[in-house]
Amino acid sequence: MDLATIIGIISGMVIFFWAISMGGSLGAFIDIPSALIVFGGVLAATMINYPFAKLLDVLKILKNVFKEKQLDAGEIIKNIVSLAETARREGLLALEEAAYQLKDEFLQKGILLIVDGTDPELVRNILETELAFLEERHKEGQSIFESMGALSPAFGLIGTIIGLINMLGHLDNPEAVGPGMAVALITTFYGAVFANLLFIPIAGKLKVRSREEILLKEVMIEGMLSIQAGENPRIIEEKLNAFLSPKKRYNFRKTKTAESGGEDLAWQQTTR
Prior knowledge:
The chain is mainly alpha-helical and 272 residues long. Strands 1-2 form a two-stranded antiparallel ribbon. Helix content is 72%, strand content 5%. The chain contains ten helices and two strands. The chain is elongated, with a radius of gyration of 27 Å. The protein has one domain (32-58, 71-272).
């Protein structure tokens, strides 16, 4: 569970309610017709803008916002260096068995292409094409919430115009002008709050998730091509660490253990 998203939404709502209650009544900010104009309008416009099949995936996309997916770069680099060690000792064909034990489908697919003797340039093209379409799918999900964020203030303004028109129809009653103006402005308030507290931040969080996943996929591609080229595991580790910030880099070392009498692969997070 992504605590940052949950804490952000809850704290934002609490701050708004607190500020409103300090200066007036919460009941004054509740208006069903205004809510219908904003939310109904945003929903209708989004359905017009996107195919229905895409909208059905919104709930799946939202899970990526509230559920923090652990993407361990160190574990990926560790697996790639381990595969490089195996290929160096036993050859590329020995990677087939290890490939089926990998949890990541993208990494598994690339290793199997290498085992099959696929040309390195073709391996890169296949993996980069899959990565490009993955990024495109991510952008579709982001664009839905970006559109909702752009539409919310617009429908808030439309609701305000509707309210003002209704208010102008009762100018013969001065006592109704003030409350009518307040109701008219509530729709703008709804549109602005939900655009800037929910829809736009959700799109931003999806972009962050997408960048993290794509970066790791790029690390995998570079690592797999380095294995195919027969590069030294230590060089591969240094090359892959270059993709990461210094605080996230991992150091690969060989240590001799008294128990095994052999060499074990030890991993240590470093702060270079």
